[in-house]
Amino acid sequence: MIRVTPQPEPDDFDKNVRKKGLKYLEKKGLNIDEPLPKGAQIAPYWRDCMTELYHAYSGICAYLAVHFERTIGGGTVEHYAPKSRRVELAYEWNNYRLASSIMNARKNNFEDVLDPFEITTGWFHVELVSGRIYPDPELTGQLQKQVKQTITRLGLDDRNNREMRARHFHEYCEKLYPKEYLKRRSPLVWAEAHRQGLLETEG
């Protein structure tokens, strides 16, 4: 993960998502100050802003820090604060993180995952040849624990994610694309290559 800068709410978000959602909750008699009743489902009006969310965050998954094409499917609106427990945030733009469907499913309702809006880039280190991800060894004990929990909860260090990060770096080293493209495609790999002084210098 790298830090994600929160983006402004779209102009029509209030009309298309927030007001419709709050009206729906009121109609259903659901108290926004209490968790949802067990098993309760609510109308997914947040899906109506998926296009705006995708473009606002340049198609970058907030947890994997890689770009994905929306046309292949798998992009989701992830509620950082679980809507089942914080229903008052179910229809709030600033609670949404652009996430791949796999990351969304792994995050689920767990609350031990660090918020991409609040972390510092550099807390997650990557061995670029292997793709292994691990906490910055210089973090305090508590922060190291939180980074490890996030890596474990989201499966950021599983075999497929390691292979993906290593492949992105390898393809850059093979000069299959320039560093500017690496930055758009795989921002965490780019940030780590930059931190480690492994990007080609201009000229």
Automatic annotation (TrEMBL):
Top-level taxon in the UniProt lineage: Bacteria
Protein name (database record): TIGR02646 family protein
